[in-house]
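seq:
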Amino acid sequence: MKVCRECNVEQTLSEFYKHEAMGDGHLNKCKSCVKERVNKHREDNIEKVREYDRQRAMLPHRVQARKEYMQTEQGKESKKKSLEKYKKTHPMTYAAHVITCNAIRDKKLKRPTKCSVCNAKKMIEAHHDDYTKPLDVRWLCNACHRAWHKSNEPIYE
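struct:
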């Protein structure tokens, strides 16, 4: 048994995270207090935490691990489930993407070589201001596309 330094409740050692530096090998705060503190920190510092998460996700070993995972059966199944969920939760957006891709394939739409906002020549994407008009697209680089969606709301109806 051990008393949590935060909530002062006596609990079994299984309610404390292991920590080799502590005398008894367990942290001096219970799991629920640690989780509460971590969640509060995330809420209070959400922008910093999100930026940290984005940078961490792009570390080379994490990118490589994701690529390897996506080659496994479990990774392929996960991607398939994710796509099915996206189709159900965003049917109009998905339909617009399919129609746009088919139009590009059939040469009814031509993907330009540069962004219509900043003239960048990398990762040009079709952007819909209005998903009810799937062939009415603007061509934006990935950065301009994300920036637009961050400060605007597309039309769905």
